[in-house]
Every structure is written in structure tokens, then in C-alpha cells.
Amino acid sequence: MPGLILKLAPGERFVANGVVIENGDRRARLNILTPDSNVLRLRDALHPDQANTPVRRVLYIVQLALAGEADVTEAKRQIVTGIEQLGFVFNDPESRTRLSRAAEDVALERFYPALRALRGLLPLEEKLMAYAAGAEPRPQ
């Protein structure tokens, strides 16, 4: 039973345990069988200048840990602190579930599931930021 399935476009790149790998000129499907492998598609990666909102900043630290570009102990500390801070704003039941799941995953150094859980907050964050800027009616 595969742990993670990557479907790659031609020429698509990803990082696996700190190594950048590029797909060939055909579509590919890879099954990552090793549990707790650190895999990140580069098309999903945030560029440092995109880490410009609270959720994106936490996501960026998770991404660094996932790619093996950060000290895991320090990254975990920063991510947990960031998740705690996000909990003051994202207090609806779905967001709380996502934050709890992400915190549990980070504690176990499962950064990819944490990344997925936190990415689900991006649409709500965008709505909240737009509301704060007066761009649209308050979200329900």
C-alpha cells in the first residue's frame, strides 16, 4: 500500500529527502513507499517573498523542514508557535481541526501532512485579509 502517490507532469521537479529530482519528458506516477519521507513538489513550494501572510509564513517554515533546509528542532518550535498564534484568528471548527491536525503532525515530524492541513486555511485567510482591507463583505 503506497504512502504517497506523486503524479508528475513532464519536466516537473520535486525534492525528496533534500535531493532535487526532475521527471523526464513523459507524465509519471511515483509511489513513495518509505513512511515519513520528505517530499515536496517544487510547483507547490512557496518562494520566500510569497511568505507574506501569517498562514504563508508558517507554511514556509514547514516547507523548509520538509525540504531538509531547516534545523528540525528549531523549525518545529517556530511552527508550533505559529499554529498557536493562528488559533487566535482561525477559531471555526474546521480551522481548529486543521490546526490541531497540523500540530500533531509537526510533533511527529510528519511535515507533508502538516503542509496539507495548513494549506486548507489559505482560502479563508484570503477572505479574512480582504475583509480586513474592506474589499468584500464579512465572511459567514
Mind sketching the topology for me?
Blueprint: E1 4-8, E2 13-16, E3 19-22, E4 28-32, E5 39-41, H1 54-66, H2 72-86, H3 93-107, H4 111-119, H5 122-132
Antiparallel strand pairs: 1-4, 2-3, 2-5
Largest sheet: 3 strands, antiparallel
Percent of residues in β-strands: 15-25%
N→C terminal distance: 40 Å
SSE run: EEEEEHHHHH
Number of H/I helices? 5
Structural class: alpha+beta
Number of strands: 5
Question: What is the radius of gyration?
Answer: 16 Å
How is the largest sheet built, in terms of strand order? Answer: 3-2-5
pLDDT < 50 stretches:
none
Mean pLDDT: 89
> Into which percent range does the helicity of residues fall?
40-55%
Number of self-contained structural domains: 2
User: What sort of overall outline do the alpha carbons produce when their principal axes are compared?
Assistant: globular
